[in-house]
Each structure stands twice: as structure tokens, then as C-alpha cells.
Design a protein that fits this description.
Elements: E1 13-15, E2 19-20, E3 24-33, E4 37-46, E5 52-59, E6 63-77, E7 87-93, E8 96-105, E9 111-119, E10 122-130, E11 132-135, E12 138-153, H1 165-171, H2 177-183, E13 206-210, H3 215-227, E14 232-236, H4 237-243, H5 249-263, E15 268-272, E16 281-284, E17 297-300, E18 338-342, H6 347-362, E19 371-376, E20 378-380, E21 389-390, H7 391-399, E22 407-412, H8 426-435, E23 439-443, E24 445-447, E25 450-457, E26 460-468, H9 469-473, E27 483-487
Parallel strand pairs: 13-14, 13-15, 15-18, 19-22, 19-23, 23-27
Antiparallel strand pairs: 1-3, 2-3, 3-4, 4-12, 5-10, 6-12, 7-8, 9-10, 11-12, 16-17, 20-21, 24-25, 25-26
Helix pairs in contact: 3-6, 4-5
The structure holds calcium ion (2 copies).
Length: 499
């Protein structure tokens, strides 16, 4: 299909990476660097059950034109699919094709497209790949693609900067993480596409946005942050709304954040208020590609983090839509600042949360903080050759990541033979949460106000709630506050009164 490319000619510097992304293995990246041209070859191996995949490669800040070519594909035809409808519903497991619930658009090439995006001080090449592709009315499944990336460089010297902690987090997403640090540069790009600024040059790392009625509590948090050496500022939402241009409040907030990124060089922003106080942006992200359906609009504060572009370049008021196979999805998927939200609804909650934060940060954590609670339930039972999905397996993987001095408690509902594999009950979860854990993780089915386990008795399925919103409100863990993760549908939704 494409001519093989002689990698030995360009193999000046060899960078070997063994990166196991969720669906894709990057076998290695080879680099050849000259004054004006940089050539890289990247080998990508698809795992068995994967579809689309994006890889991110940090490129030098002086990169100008970039070309990505595919020079080798290992693939085999999928015999069951010989026509070319736009949509399929199937998955591939152990080489066997099984109909499943996923809608998937099959492109004409595994290399779907590429573009340059920005993440803070990094210039990044984003490449979209697809395991399946169609060619002459046949569908192929590929196991490996090799890419040649040619980068022309401008004759400009950019000032390199030391990556800070936020940069280090961003770097973990790059397939060439090792060399990315050398590319971290003060590009001094202006994110603002609106020609509007209301701020003077300053040095502010952390900005709090608060509605007026909660501002006295936000101010207490501000003073606390300042006392700990953080260069922090408080900005009222009413000032943003009356000062910045924008079609609605989220756009005005984002225009302020762009201005603060450019002029204050902020790294962090805190939204002090729930979705009623400070609105979220809803983006168009349908679960099914065919028709917009209910639930196609998802709330996200990512809009406030990824500051390039507008998320709505066609100005139709629909944000973050992805049109067919176009990679112009209007979202720059690389964040430029870190954004958090404290979803307080009233003064009582605001006072309570600020007290908790100050107490937590000013009291040395006890031994309890090194306790982790992992709760895993069955997501789906094995069926028709397709393996079941078990939260317990995910919890086992997570357990291995904790430092050795952590004390880990596991509560599972599982069909596998784990120790204590039927102890995920409402009473056990509540009593463990009351003891106080530093880290709590749930992997199960979930709703806005609840977490669920599912089990079978004589092949009949039963559903049982193991944590309600009311349970959380009644907990007696006091100041032993947990960092809680939930890999479950809708739990922790930012636009509801959720669990
Ligand atoms: Ca960005
Ligand atoms: Ca749009």
C-alpha cells in the first residue's frame, strides 16, 4: 500500500518507550534531529478490543509544518463485513466478532487525521487512529501501524523553561514523555481570540471565582491560601459578567480565564459554587452517533480548562460537537490550566467546606489517611462469548498502585474467587466510611443519588443499592475526610444534587 521507509537512515537518536495506554501500545519512537528537520517513526500496536485511539507527541516549540504519513499497516480483513454501511454495532474479542452495543464509524484509513494543539507551555501533535478501516467494500482490522512524522522547524530560538508540577502531569500523556521536558518553552502565545483584556500584567497563580453572596467564605479561603504562600486572587462573578464579552455566562467566565492566563499567568482556577451559582458548559456528546438523543448534552468544566479555540467555531450554539469523522471537534483536548469546583449551594455549606479545608490542611493527617477503601461490583456478566466486566478486577489493579505502607480494605461483589468477594453491602460500606479513609474508590453501577451492586441467584439477576445519598449525609467520619473516586454512571454529577 505504502512504501516501506528505511528507518536506519534516520535513526540518530533512539528513544525506546514501553507505554501501555489503555487501548494501544506504543512500541517505540525513533528520532532523527537536524537543525531544521526532525523525523520520528512511531510504531503503534492495537490491543484486541480497541477502536479509536489518540496519541499525543510533544514537538519542539519552533515546529512549523508537520506531516504524518503511514508507511506500514498490519491488518486482516473481517470476513463478516463486506458492505459499507456507515455504522456498525459490534466488538472484537479474541479475534471473534460479536455484535455489541457500540456504534462505530469506520474510516477509510487507520490514520484518521492529525493536528497541532497546545497544553500550557507545550506544543503537541495529536494523531487520531482507528483499529478498523474500510478499503474497497471490505472492513479490515489492524494490529499495528507505523507512522513517519516529519517536522520542519523555524529558525527561531524559544526560551526553554523548567516544567513545573502541572507541566509534569501534562507530560505523562505524551508518548515521548522523556524528551518532552526539553520542549517545554515559554511560547508566550496569547490564548485570547477575542481582542479584549481588562487585566494588568501580574503574577497570580491561583484565582477564585465566587458569586457575591458566598464571597465572604471565598475570601477566608483566599486568605488561607495566601498565608500558605500561594499567589491568589478573588474575582466576583458579577464583575466578570459585566466586564467580559460573551454570548452567555460560561463564555464570559472563559474569556476572563483566557485573559487571566495571558496577563496573570494563572495555573489554577477555583469555581466557588454549584451549577446554580456558577453555570457549567454543556457540550454535545451523544452516546449514539446516529441521532441526537436525550442526554446528548453533557455538563463539563473542561470548557474552563482547555482555553484554545471556542468549542463552537461554527457559532451554532452547539458546543464541542464532532462532525462525522472530522477531527475538528471544536474541543482542544489539552488543558491549559487546572480547574476545580467546590459545589456549595448556600452559605452554610460554604462555611462548612471552608472550615473543613482549613482544618484538613492545618492538621497533620493521622494514620487513618493511609487507609484506602476499594469497592468493586459486577458491571456485566459474561454472555455470548463476551467476557464479563468486574469492578473487583479494576480494584485489584488499583490496589497494586498504592504505596506499600497503605492499609487497603476491599469490599467486593464478584463472580471470581477473591477473598471476601460478597462483602459489598450497604451496612459494611457505611460502617467503613464512618471509620475514615484517606482514599475511597468505587467501581460499579451508579445513579445520581446511589451506587449499586448486581448479583445472580439461580441465574436470576438482582440489583441492590449499597450507598444512597442519604447515607452519605448521615456519615460520622467527621474531619477524617476522604478523597473519593467513583467509576460509575452519573455518580458525582456536577449538575445535580448527586451522591
Ligand atoms: Ca489547550
Ligand atoms: Ca458548534
Amino acid at each position: 500500500m505504502l512504501k516501506p521507509y528505511n528507518v536506519t537512515r534516520i535513526a540518530v537518536a533512539v528513544l525506546v518507550l514501553a507505554l501501555f495506554a489503555s487501548n494501544l501500545q506504543i512500541a517505540h519512537v525513533l528520532s532523527a534531529d537536524t537543525d531544521r528537520t526532525l523525523v520520528k517513526t512511531v510504531t503503534c500496536q492495537f490491543k484486541e478490543n480497541s477502536f479509536y485511539k489518540t496519541i499525543l507527541l510533544a514537538v519542539p516549540p519552533e515546529s512549523s509544518s508537520i506531516k504524518v504519513e503511514m508507511f506500514h499497516v498490519s491488518s486482516q480483513p473481517m470476513e463478516n463485513f463486506t458492505d459499507t454501511p456507515s455504522y456498525y454495532a459490534f466488538t472484537v474479542y479474541n479475534g471473534v466478532t460479536i455484535y455489541y452495543r457500540i456504534s462505530y464509524v469506520v474510516p477509510d484509513s487507520p490514520l484518521m487525521g492529525y493536528e497541532i494543539v497546545y497544553a500550557r507551555d507545550f506544543k503537541v501533535l495529536k494523531i487520531d487512529l482507528s483499529k478498523l478501516f474500510k478499503d474497497h467494500f471490505k472492513i479490515f482490522s489492524c494490529s499495528e501501524v507505523r507512522l513517519k512524522i516529519t517536522i520542519k522547524k523555524l529558525n527561531i530560538r524559544f526560551r526553554r523553561v523548567m516544567p513545573d508540577t502541572l507541566d509534569m502531569q501534562i507530560m505523562k500523556n505524551f508518548i515521548n514523555m522523556g524528551e518532552a521536558a526539553n520542549y517545554c518553552a515559554l511560547i508566550s502565545r496569547q490564548i485570547n481570540d477575542e481582542d479584549f483584556s481588562a487585566l494588568e500584567e501580574s503574577d497570580v497563580a491561583y484565582v477564585i471565582i465566587s458569586p457575591g453572596e458566598l464571597s465572604s467564605y471565598a475570601e477566608r479561603l483566599l486568605e488561607w491560601k495566601r498565608s500558605r504562600g500561594v499567589k491568589a486572587e478573588l474575582v466576583l462573578l458579577s464583575w466578570i459578567k459585566s466586564t467580559y464579552p460573551g454570548r452567555d455566562t460560561p463564555e464570559k467566565i472563559r474569556n476572563f480565564l483566557k485573559d487571566a492566563y495571558n496577563k496573570w499567568h494563572i495555573k489554577w482556577a477555583l469555581l466557588f459554587g454549584d451549577y446554580r451559582k456558577i453555570p457549567v458548559r454543556y457540550i454535545f456528546n451523544p452516546d449514539y452517533l446516529r441521532e441526537p438523543n436525550q442526554g446528548s448534552y453533557k455538563p463539563t468544566d473542561y470548557y474552563y480548562m482547555a482555553l484554545d479555540g471556542s468549542f463552537d467555531e461554527d457559532h451554532d450554539g452547539i458546543y464541542g460537537e464532532r462532525k462525522g469523522l472530522s477531527i475538528k471537534d471544536e474541543i482542544d483536548w489539552m488543558p491549559d490550566i487546572a480547574v476545580g469546583r467546590i459545589p456549595v449551594s448556600n452559605e452554610d455549606e460554604a462555611e462548612n467546606v471552608v472550615n473543613k479545608i482549613i482544618s484538613f490542611e492545618s492538621t497533620p493527617t493521622g494514620q487513618w489517611f493511609k487507609r484506602a477503601l476499594l469497592c468493586g461490583a459486577i458491571i456485566s456478566f459474561s454472555q455470548g462469548g463476551y467476557p464479563g466486566i468486574e469492578g473487583a478486577e479494576t480494584c485489584e489493579n488499583i490496589a497494586r498502585l498504592f504505596p506499600r505502607d497503605y492499609n487497603i480494605t476491599k469490599l467486593y461483589e464478584s463472580s471470581k474467587d477473591y477473598h471476601n468477594y460478597h462483602n459489598l453491602t450497604r451496612s459494611s460500606v457505611v460502617s467503613h466510611l464512618n471509620i475514615g479513609y484517606g482514599c475511597v474508590n468505587f467501581v460499579s453501577h451508579g445513579g445520581y443519588d446511589s451506587l449499586w451492586r448486581v448479583y445472580k441467584v439461580d441465574s436470576r439477576e438482582f440489583w441492590d443499592c449499597y450507598l444512597w445519598r442519604m447515607d452519605a449525609l448521615m456519615l460520622s467520619n467527621k474531619f477524617k475526610l476522604s478523597v473519593v473516586y467513583a467509576a460509575s454512571c452519573n455518580t458525582g454529577a456536577i449538575d445535580r444534587d448527586s451522591l
